[in-house]
Design goal:
Layout lengths: L4 H6 L6 H8 L6 E3 L5 E3 L12 E7 L9 H14 L4 E5 L4 H6 L6 E2 L2 E4 L1 H5 L5 H21 L6 E6 L3 E3 L9 E3 L10 E3 L1 E3 L4 H8 L3 H10 L1 E5 L4 E3 H4 L2 H8 L6 E5 L4 E4 L14 H10 L2 E5 L4 H16 L5 E6 L1 H7 L12 H20 L5 E5 L6 H14 L3 E4 L1 H4 L5 H11 L15 H13 L3 E4 L1 H13 L6 E4 L19 E10 L4 E6 L18 E2 L5 E2 L3
Parallel strand pairs: 3-16, 3-17, 4-15, 4-16, 8-11, 17-18, 18-19, 20-22, 21-23
Antiparallel strand pairs: 1-2, 2-14, 5-6, 6-14, 7-12, 9-10, 12-13, 14-15, 22-23, 24-25
Amino acid sequence: MAFTDLTIAKNAALLPITEIAEQAGIPADALELYGNHKAKITTDRLPKMTALGKVVLVTAISPTPAGEGKSTVTVGLADALKQLDESVMVALREPSLGPVMGVKGGATGGGYAQVLPMEDINLHFTGDIHAITTANNALSAFIDNHLHQGNLLKMDPRRIVWKRVLDINDRALRHVMIGLGGPGQGIPREDGFDITVASEIMAVLCLAVSLDDLRERLARMLIGYTYDREPITVRDLGVEGALTLLLKDAFKPNLVQTMEGTPTIIHGGPFANIAHGCNSLAATQTARQLADIVVTEAGFGADLGAEKFMHIKSRKGGFHPDAVVIVATVRALKMHGGIVKAELAEANAEAVRRGMVNLEKHVETIRQFGIEPVIALNRFITDSAEEMATIQEWAEAAGVPLALTNVWEEGGKGGLELAALVKQQLAEPTDFHFLYEESDAVEEKLRAIVENVYGGAGVQLTEAAQKQLLQLKKYGWDELPICMAKTQYSLSDQPALLGRPEGFTVTIREIIPKLGAGFLVCLTGDIMTMPGLPKQPAALGMDVGEDGEAMGLF
């Protein structure tokens, strides 16, 4: 039998979730059980703590088809810290069915560094993403009903910015016409679908700190404009209470466990190339309330998830990472050095050396925030001694601590070297600072990200984006942080430019105000808010066995 992530997960012995909760210090009356191995946490029933745990943020180099293993390293690091007798919890995002069915096949770590129950988490879990989908589409229904029933708000059907959502990659739904079929079917207008994890309601749920805050953020969301081009929000429609009701259970963080029994909170799942790419603020703060160290991750490379963790999540939460881990692999660095995927098994230290520029830039980026990173070199069986030595020699010369990790094969044991380095960094003070202030002009904020984080030469706004910028300033929405929507594959906005491109200009084609989430989404290049499926979706290998268990997740 092949040792896939799924077969390893199926053979793991899970502890009852009540034991995991007891280990974490969660009282029984704060648990809402979803079977034997999942539970929701009622956070206002937790013991109040005066000191909150430290945060370890795991990020990575720019992702490649070779894989980096960021979630796997996150889980393995937490298990290693537990083996060192540290009080530790993991805080992760919930997988989206879009990439699970499309490319990833799963997103709960891998090998012996997984979060369990793997198949539940990768599929419907506790229904949070479905609740967000329902709330989002309920708002769309309320909008179209308002138009149909007389349109007292004088909403311009041509200027409704709220879209429907679905948690599956479906390119055919990017642009649709609705309300066709006659007067009884509603008002005909153009509409479209985003993927649920790119929706503003997902971001709102992940940044709210209480139900009252959730309701207020939902009320602030922009849904469109009047015929006089005045903004209309959910508050004007009067349905923020109904949306909060639909989300009240989804707002509670979910408790599960790693393969080694480390308590894990999985909650919220915004994409990092489109949205802000971090698990919920409620989940992270809950974990900090329960453990001395919280290991979390942000999506894709440090140019996306980590930058947004700093500028969006850290601002909203009033805390910052106390240590940062950058995950790299020999295979991925070879791709950044110009080697195609089919040739990655062949040793090529020179290609690794060429690709090191990508890792170098991400190290520089984290240092710009005033934090000294640690590199986790995630080992593969095909890595040669010369290739690994090339990276280790560079790290030593650059003064960056580096640990070899083998958590896929060995679990926490394979992350002990990394855990020791992280503990050293947690003992050191940081000089954390933002790269821009919210009060800076939008153009200055964009330049700060493009020039300092991406290493680009400048920013160019399309004519449409320039008009939107004037509108932002008119309504006073320009003093919000930036959430860049950019390809994950390159530091630039051009997916094919691997390594460390220089001299490029990032084009902002559209600026979308997300008033409930509290940031401006800036669309770059050809980034899509509703992805498509690949030619051979991962779903083609999925099924249910005779025992009723999942097949084909990985």
